[in-house]
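[#protein-structures] MJ: dropping Metal ABC transporter substrate-binding protein here for a structure pass
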Amino acid sequence: MHKTTRHRTTLPFHRPRTAALALAVSAVSALAGMPTAVAADNPGSHQHGQALLQLAVDGEQLELTLESPAANLAGFERAARSAEERQQLNDIRHWLTANPLVDTVPASCRVTATVFDEEPEAGADGDHHHGGDEHRESHSDYRLSQSLHCPGATTASRLRSALPERFPALEQLQVQWLTPRGQGSTVLTAAQAEFHTQP
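AK: finished. structure tokens for Metal ABC transporter substrate-binding protein:
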């Protein structure tokens, strides 16, 4: 079982709005003492098998962001090259839109909004770059924000994520959270997909 790190804070907590979501999740990383750099700013952060999920909790409202190499979810990091691959990307988008990235135990969360900032192209053939011994490899990520309404979340400190089970290539999901009681972090896997936001 992975160790869970929790930190307490006396900072005031305000309900995150959609426009302020980036500030909310930046606060999660800052308070947890962890970097917020994404793949575009830090090439070392693009690691296959790993992803970052950040969430801010206030009452029954949860605001989340997910950053993951596309290979973890789709198995490739280029534009779709066939009808089957385009359908696969569409299925992934639908799943990420319809399903909470985290949920209470028992499940009560409902997705109210999902915004994709980056995802693999599903509507065009991929480009091939070959020139002598040169081969250009592209990298892409899924970056998305999600808003949830979770009745009963005020008394439910036990949460789980279906991401590692739904996407087997995602071996480790780093989770960082901020709640009115404090903040913390942990690492989830398919075998250990639950965590607690309270001591």
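MJ: nice. Residues 5-39+46-118+141-196 form one domain.
AK: one more thing. The mean pLDDT is 77.
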